[in-house]
Structure formats: structure tokens, C-alpha cells
Design brief:
This protein is an alpha/beta fold. Helix content is 37%, strand content 23%. It contains 15 helices and 21 strands. The strands form 4 sheets. Strands 1-5-4-2-3-6 form a 6-stranded mixed β-sheet, sandwiched between helices. β14 and β15 form a beta hairpin. α9 runs parallel beside α10. The chain is globular and about 65 Å long.
Length: 471
């Protein structure tokens, strides 16, 4: 029997188009999902969406056809829609699950399949393991690849946009943004949030300038990730047009990118801490703050300042989603620019994050950096970074072995605590820390480093790189 080509990582199954992300493999994954759903419902209902990548609409059609052959009702989107909009639609219509054909922020040669559970959250590991096991059984001939159902009533159209936008109008203070008459620049990076975030901003009395407002399956030669490098054009535009803030979302709009009024790209870690402080101090929302093990401890300082608890999770927004479902947190976030808030989806939402940043600028009358400086004065400064190191498979194996060993010292300093929630995290006496973990979606090792000041951070980064790259 052939090896199972379907492996779910921290955010779905992803692969290179035409190499392992193929029509046959999408059918396999969809069959595994169909059998999983049919074990739990006689006639399950699923929303099927897709992003702006090459052939995403065709991959979505293949997924939907496979599901319907097994008696699963599919509500197929007619345009590329954001992951959070699909999550909201799934919950609103009380569906049994959701499939989104997207590789999110990955480079253009990738595509992927995200599966959401009935609660609108990314599927938990026990669910994806069950789906993978079903695929193995399909490959072995124990379960069917295609069913025999041909009921045309199983195919339904779907437009998640109107209801999702209405929900955001209830959760964001568009009136305050409107009163401030902000000039805002927005870059959807050719992705699915076109006609979503810019549409809501256009309802205010400010001015919105939208860049890259068209589909480009190559994403101008780079991945649709709202990184500092990829938002250079947005930064220049913000400076030239004297905008109050620059906003961006990734390919499926579950991640955010923020540029300050002087064109400076602001790290997602800082945005998470700023918004947590805003929601607790200004909005007076109750609850703690959730963060992944890889996310800044500036959040911990904000939580301590306001006297609320911090909940740490492994990497993967599905774990943050559990805290949202339990109504424990005001805000949940990951340093990779994922965020949601109390009363919203158990899924990251880049559109909501961007709107909340615009709200803070309007409400506080301060630029993002000015707000950050004020936060540092309240809770203390933090310098933080994340670095991706692309390694060959044999090097990755060696690194994985190194990450299994405990260290007494790092960067010539004593390690006071080792955290193995996800990868190897070493915490030093002054609160500095480094986390090293292999990515669940790309062939890279990720380094997360944090220190009180930039000079100490630079030394920590150099030590982390040496640890990974030296034999």
C-alpha cells in the first residue's frame, strides 16, 4: 500500500501544487473527511471555500464533489472568501464542518486544505488523526474513495460575506473610527479580504486607499504573508500619503500586518499586547489573556498590570480556540499574527485585528508606536523577534536530536527553566528566553527570541543560530 500523502500540521494539510497537492490527493483528503462526518451524522452539512491561489476554485470543486458523492451536503462559495468568514458561516448555519482550500500565508507554489469542526475552530489533533486514519483505510480499499450518492439537492450556494460583515459591525466601534476621519492604507496582498476590510473602512468618514486590489496567483513573486519585507510598498505608501496607519491581511485573511504612520512595520507580538491592554483598559472586557508558548511575554506583563491570568498553549490556533470556547480570555493570540477576542470566533481573524488597531488609533488619538511607548512605560520594555532557518532534511534530523536534550546554560548564562510545551524553550534569569521548534507546515526551524533590550536580543539570536547550525 502507498504511503499516506495527507498529513495535517498546525493549520491543515499543505503541499506544493502538482507535486503532492494534487486532485487525487484532495479527493483522498476529502474522502477521509466525508467518512469522518458520516460516522457522526446521517446527512452532514459542510461549507466549502477557497482562496485566490492557482486553481483553488477547481480544488474546492473536487473536494465538494467528493463530499457529495458520500451524501454530504456542500455549501460552496462562489468567490474567494476569508477563513474567518467561513468560520462564522459555519457557526451561524450550525453546519457540521468546513473545508477551505488555502495555504494561508505560504508561498505561491503551495496550496492546502483546512478543516474546521462544527464549532468553527481549526480541527483538533484527535480529529485530524481520525481523518488521516480514514485516508489510510481508503488507500487500503477498506473505505470507498467515492460514494454513490447523486442527489442534486446536496449542492447549495453560499455567500458568507453579508452576515460576517454584519457581525464585525457589532464588534468594532466603526463610529469612533468614523469620527476620527482617519486616512488608512490597506494591502490585502491579492488575497481573500478584498471587498471585506476595505468595504467596512469605506463606511467610515475617513479615507481608505487599497493596494493590490486584484487576484494574482503568484502574489507578485512572494508569499501573501504580511511581513516587513512584503509590506515595503505599503510602508512607502503610508509615508507618502500621510496615512494614520497601514493595514494588511494574508492570503486567507486570518493573519494581520500593521504599519505605523511613519512607515514602520510593527511586530505582531507588540500588536497583540497593545490590543489586550486596550480591550481590558478601555473596553473593560473581563477575562484573562491566551497566548501560545512562542508568543511574547509582554502579554504576561500586561496581564500582571491588569491583574488577570495568562493561559499558555502549544503552537496552533486550535488551542487558543479552546480558550475562547470556554469563555476564559479577553484576547487570544499567536506571534505569527493570529488573534481573536472574547465573544468572537475560536479562529484567528486578521480582518478583525486590523479594525481593532484602527479603533485604538482613533480612540486614543495616538499612533501605534506612541501607544507602544506608553505601554512600555506601564509594564517595561521588551525586544522580540522570530527567525526562520531553512534547512535540508538531514540537518533538520540533527537539529531535532539536539532539541531533545536539556541545557544547563545558554548564551553563557544559566537556564532557570525549560519548557517543552512545543519544541525547546529555555528561560534565563533576566526573563530572556529562546524557543526552537520545527515548523508544522514548512521545511524550516523557527527561532523565537526575547530579551529586555535590543542589544541582549542580538546576542541571544546569535547564540540560537549557532546552536542550530553548528554540528
Amino acid at each position: 500500500m502507498a504511503d499516506n500523502p495527507i498529513h495535517f500540521g498546525t493549520s491543515g494539510w499543505r503541499g506544493v501544487i502538482a507535486e503532492n497537492f494534487t486532485f487525487p490527493n484532495v479527493r483522498l483528503a476529502s474522502a477521509g473527511i466525508a467518512h469522518f462526518l458520516r460516522e457522526r451524522s446521517a446527512r452532514p452539512r459542510v461549507v466549502v471555500g477557497y482562496d485566490t491561489r492557482f486553481m483553488s476554485e477547481r480544488f474546492a470543486a473536487v473536494a465538494a464533489e467528493t463530499l457529495r458523492s458520500h451524501g454530504v451536503e456542500t455549501r460552496v462559495c462562489s468567490r474567494p472568501d476569508p477563513t474567518p468568514a467561513l468560520s462564522y458561516e459555519l457557526r451561524r448555519e450550525k453546519l457540521d464542518g468546513g473545508i477551505n482550500i488555502t495555504a494561508s500565508h505560504n508561498p505561491a507554489e503551495y496550496n492546502g486544505l483546512k478543516f474546521s469542526s462544527a464549532d468553527g475552530a481549526p480541527a483538533l489533533p484527535e480529529v485530524t488523526r481520525a481523518i488521516e486514519a480514514n485516508v489510510v483505510r481508503v488507500l487500503a480499499g477498506e473505505l470507498s474513495l467515492l460514494g454513490s450518492t447523486s442527489d442534486p439537492a446536496l449542492e447549495q450556494p453560499c455567500d458568507p460575506r453579508p452576515a460576517y460583515l454584519d457581525d464585525l459591525r457589532r464588534k468594532v466601534d466603526l463610529h469612533t473610527i468614523s469620527k476620527a476621519r482617519l486616512h488608512i492604507a490597506y494591502d490585502p496582498l491579492y488575497g481573500t479580504a478584498r471587498g471585506y476590510l476595505d468595504h467596512l473602512l469605506a463606511e467610515t468618514k475617513g479615507t481608505v486607499h487599497t493596494l493590490h486590489d486584484f487576484r494574482d496567483v503568484l502574489f507578485q513573486g512572494v508569499g501573501p504573508e504580511p511581513s516587513e519585507e512584503n509590506l515595503a510598498e505599503l510602508s512607502e505608501y503610508v509615508r507618502e500619503k500621510h496615512c494614520a496607519v497601514g493595514l494588511s491581511t494574508d492570503g486567507d485573511a486570518d493573519r494581520f500586518g500593521i504599519v505605523d504612520d511613519d512607515g514602520t512595520w510593527i511586530q505582531p507580538n507588540y500588536i497583540l499586547a497593545l490590543l489586550a491592554d486596550y480591550l481590558i483598559e478601555v473596553r473593560k472586557l473581563p477575562g484573562g489573556i491566551g497566548r501560545s508558548v512562542a508568543t511574547t511575554h509582554l502579554i504576561d506583563a500586561v496581564a500582571k498590570h491588569h491583574g488577570v491570568p495568562v493561559y499558555q498553549t502549544p503552537v496552533g490556533f486550535k488551542y487558543i480556540g479552546e480558550l475562547i470556547k470556554e469563555d476564559k480570555i479577553v484576547l487570544g493570540g499567536e506571534e505569527s499574527a493570529g488573534l481573536t477576542i472574547r465573544g468572537h470566533l475560536p479562529e484567528k481573524d486578521g480582518i478583525l485585528a486590523c479594525l481593532l488597531v484602527a479603533e485604538t488609533v482613533a480612540k486614543r488619538g495616538l499612533s501605534v508606536k506612541q501607544q507602544l511607548e506608553a505601554l512600555f512605560k506601564k509594564v517595561g520594555p521588551v525586544a522580540t523577534t522570530r527567525i526562520n532557518l531553512h534547512l535540508e532534511p538531514e540537518v533538520q534530523k540533527r537539529v531535532l536530536e539536539k532539541l531533545r536534550r536539556d541545557c544547563d546554560k545558554f548564551d553563557s548564562r544559566k537556564v532557570v527553566n525549560i519548557d517543552r510545551t512545543d519544541g525547546l524553550k529555555m528561560i534565563l534569569a533576566d526573563g530572556s528566553w529562546v524557543l526552537m521548534r520545527l515548523s508544522g507546515t514548512e521545511p524550516v526551524v523557527r527561532l523565537y527570541c526575547e530579551a529586555p533590550v535590543q542589544s541582549e536580543l542580538d546576542k541571544l539570536v546569535a547564540s540560537a543560530k549557532a546552536f542550530v547550525l553548528e554540528s
